[in-house]
Amino acid sequence: MDTSKYVRYTPEQVEALERVYSECPKPSSLRRQQLIRECPILSNIEPKQIKVWFQNRRCREKQRKEASRLQTVNRKLTAMNKLLMEENDRLQKQVSHLVYDNGYMRQQLQSASGTTTDNSCESVVMSGQQQQQQNPTPQHPQRDANNPAGLLAIAEEALAEFLSKATGTAVDWVQMIGMKPGPDSIGIVAVSRNCSGVAARACGLVSLEPTKVAEILKDCPSWFRDCRCLDVLSAIPTGNGGTIELIYMQTYAPTTLAAARDFWMLRYTASLDDGSLVICVRSLTSSTGGPSGPPNTSFVRAEMLPSGYLIRPCEGGGSIIHIVDHVDLDAWSVPEVLRPLYESSKILAQKMTIAALRHIRQIAQETSGEIQYGGGRQPAVLRTFSQRLCRGFNDAVNGFADDGWSLLGSDGVEDVTIMVNSSPSKFLGSQYSTSMFSTFGGGVLCAKASMLLQNVPPALLVRFLREHRSEWADYGVDAYSAACLRASPFAVPCARPGGFPGSQVILPLAHTVEHEEFLEVVRLEGHAFSPEDVALARDMYLLQLCSGVDENAVGASAQLVFAPIDESFADDAPLLPSGFRVIPLDTKTDGPAATRTLDLASTLEVGAGGARPASEADLNSYNLRSVLTIAFQFTFENHLRDNVAAMARQYVRSVVGSVQRVAMAISPSRLSSHAGPKPLPGSPEALTLAQWICRGYRVHTGGELFQVDTQAGDAILKQLWHHSDAILCCSVKTNASPVFTFANQAGLDMLETTLVALQDIMLDKILDEAGRKILCSEFSKIMQQGFAYLPAGMCVSSMGRPLSYEQAITWKVLDDDDSNHCLAFMFINWSFV
């Protein structure tokens, strides 16, 4: 057969080839020859022609997928274009209203300037009375709770007001910074300006049908993390095919310094003439009419102004969603310093409006198979873990009496609140009571505290707490927390200063679409302090949720919540969450950039004479306040309750102190790249080590590390600290991996760490595979000769950023007795890649 000619395949031959293609799209030469032998109908076709058929088939499949992708993108762009055109129309209407209002105000000012001074007050009073008569405040008569017609009237009023906010100009909307529209963006997000209460609005595109979107949005506790419960007390069908529901909703307080809120609302679900679904809600009050809601003294009653969801079907599938959240949270009932939490539209947008859109997009991508998670876990299971961690932490922060929490007496200092729960099955579930509590009986104890932070970006602080656990955690306390998962409980520990003998390894588990939330498993690698502490030598595991670490998200709170788990980590594993939450009180965006080294040494080691550089005066204008809430939960046996309470109180105070030190160190006024060089360590040990490093370099290499200009006591340390190349020291131990013990300013910048956290970094963790091989091959030479030159290479900082260096020199550092003290490394001309 002439292989250069086109071959026309029969339907039977195509069917046989398609069967093979479905099993193996790219068969080998042997497999194609085997196919010809096993399938008689292909015997008259050359192997080369079979190869060409498979190439063409793969090409057609690739083109089909690309065409499908382009069609999907085109549908998204068409829908987004329609959305933008509607938004443009709304903005034009808003401009027209503003022009009209401006002209009216100008006319009023001109007419007011023509009146006499004596009659001005009277004119203002009379005009005000006339305007009040022309525009009387609408009064709604009290509607009967058993009268569906009265409730329908309230629902229709709420629907009209909601639509005027969603697609009209009833509220002066201002677009949030960074929320740019696009086919893959979350949507268009705006916040209110100069309106009663706080409001946020969003519109976006999702690939789910309207009925599915409505079902998800109605399940408020699944996506609104501050929602404690939502109870539908009654449902009334309406004559137009809609449904009116009376709803009672409770929300958590974000901090221990304020009371929780509840809402008594009417929810109206209906279909519009254009096929859109609409779900609107509003509070039922004495002014709106309708039945009165259930009282609850533990909550402050807040008001939901007309809000809701407008869900419109898209051509070709999917939905366009308009979301409006408008609430009055009674900000005057909280301390003045916390009122920004209840008066910020940006915080409302992050907590409710954007959260709803993100949740729908997450489910849409999971449904379409765009997101694949490893470990054999279903996406719904991983979402449930995140929800349980947040809910458990919120329960601990709020400590509701109906969950069984009661206040424990203090020790005279009111900085830490201790609450106990002797019936934790109310919120943990009855299935956990036998596994977590011994036969002696017991419960859960929570130690919590809140504090105000100044000039500390929440995202930066939470990121530091996540990546540098040794800065604040106590390994013995972690071991006690993990003991609740074992049959034999661990003894109540005494907190050790800096007691974190192991290291942590973060194992990613899942993340949301926009990476604003991470679910991960943390393995705490234990190394015993002494032979008596063998129990501390075992590895422990934490399930950890980290959110809000995007420093560009305006108004977003940052949170780090974790709970001990065992090695099996079942889907229904008991969780007792603890953690941190940092909420911004002021949302300023003009502060210094946050891409900086997390350097704790500049605060921990500054000497008595260390003065702040004059250039920091400009940074003091960056005034960002935030409130930090800390809550730690522990199980206890009844006979050890007081011991656990004392340990928990001491531990939380220790954590608060550590967080305060970290917050001072990472504040922009100390960490900005414009704030001048970091102060050098001033301890006698640092002075001695600097002399040993320089002497070792001179003895082994025959050269000088640098020229000392003066013979002052700290001159060598100053020169070493400010040396342009990264100089680091690591331990030399036969039974342990080498860890870093000292670094100069350039070394800390290179590793992106601190002098304290430096001790958690092992040498082999920062070198790449080639660097480790070279170091191993040169190690004997280093120990015999005293030094070695290493070629150019790559390494990784503690933050995971790759960097390169032109050359490295390593030499032995000897103490005064000529014994090996450590190895010194100097990385020359390093830079981030």
TrEMBL record:
Signal peptide: none annotated. It is found in: Nucleus. Keywords: Coiled coil, Differentiation, DNA-binding, Homeobox, Nucleus, Transcription, Transcription regulation. Residues 110-128 have a biased composition (Polar residues). It holds the Pfam family Homeodomain. GO terms for cellular component: nucleus. Its main location: nucleus. One of its GO terms (biological process) is cell differentiation. Residues 3-65 bind DNA. InterPro entries: HD (IPR001356), HD-Zip_III (IPR044830), MEKHLA (IPR013978), START_lipid-bd_dom (IPR002913). SMART domains: HOX (SM00389), START (SM00234). It comes from the Eukaryota. Residues 144-372 form the START domain. The keyword Transcription applies. Residues 1-64 form the Homeobox domain. GO terms for molecular function: DNA binding; DNA-binding transcription factor activity; lipid binding. Residues 110-146 are annotated as: Disordered. PANTHER family: HOMEOBOX-LEUCINE ZIPPER PROTEIN ATHB-14 (PTHR45950). Belongs to the HD-ZIP homeobox family. Class III subfamily. This is Homeobox-leucine zipper protein ATHB-14-like. It comes from Carya illinoinensis. The lineage of its organism: Eukaryota, Viridiplantae, Streptophyta, Embryophyta, Tracheophyta.
